[in-house]
Write a structure and sequence with these properties.
single chain, mainly alpha, about 75% helix, about 0% strand, flat
Length: about 280
Amino acid sequence: MTTELAAARRPTSVASSAAAVRHKVGNGLIWLFLCIIAAVCIGPVAFIFRASFGSGTDWTLDGWVKILQQGLLQAGLVSLTLGVLSCLLTTVIATMAAFAFAKLPFRGSQSLLMAIIIILLVPGQVFIIPQYLDVARTVGLGSIPVTAVIYSVSQLPFSIFVLTNFFRSIPSEIFEAAMVDGASVPRSVFSVFLPMAGPPLITVGVLNFIGVWNDLLIALLYLPSDQVRTIGVVLATAQSLRSFDVTMVMAGSLISAIPTMLIFLFFQRYITVGLTAGVGK
């Protein structure tokens, strides 16, 4: 009887051992894959960091000094101003428009929303020439507020799309209850819906700010003066036609990447939630 019980238990123990081995192998492969992805992401940053201090065994700060002498800090302040202004303007307009599309439908609202989504598929460079001519003829070039408005216009379709999906995921009964209690539409938006819209608003703000910070084309066209250059323009124009200072470019690239990396790392949890908000509706 004992022998029969031992024989019956042996296949079970063998199966559990095989399952444990498969589990360990699977975890090992996952960790290996993640390590490869991490190396691919961290490798370029490590290369930029090392190259910014020179090549070989000699470490020098010449590249950092040269790029700072090009006005990088002032350019960073200009980029920060543009990013903040455009993000604030985009967030306010996109929030109002998205709430109207989600909770205040009107005749033709779905067609208008579809047109806005279609604009996302059109490259922004298509509108550059007519947009540039209109701005140059009307308000002129070299203005930071005007350039912030240009950035805001280019960011509105994506922001409206994300926020509309989020507002649609909120039950309409909440809005109806607020209206029954005597709240106006603006009061309902600011007192009821905005407190719940933290993650998507942060997502829109962070992604739009990173886009403005890293942009070159719009800043190069609409801010031609050397006094209001952005950080991307400084990095692009710091080189001469006959020489290429690797250490200076790498130092400038590292300085320009640090703020966006810190912002993304700090808000990454909210970005994940914000991008997936309303996907099931």
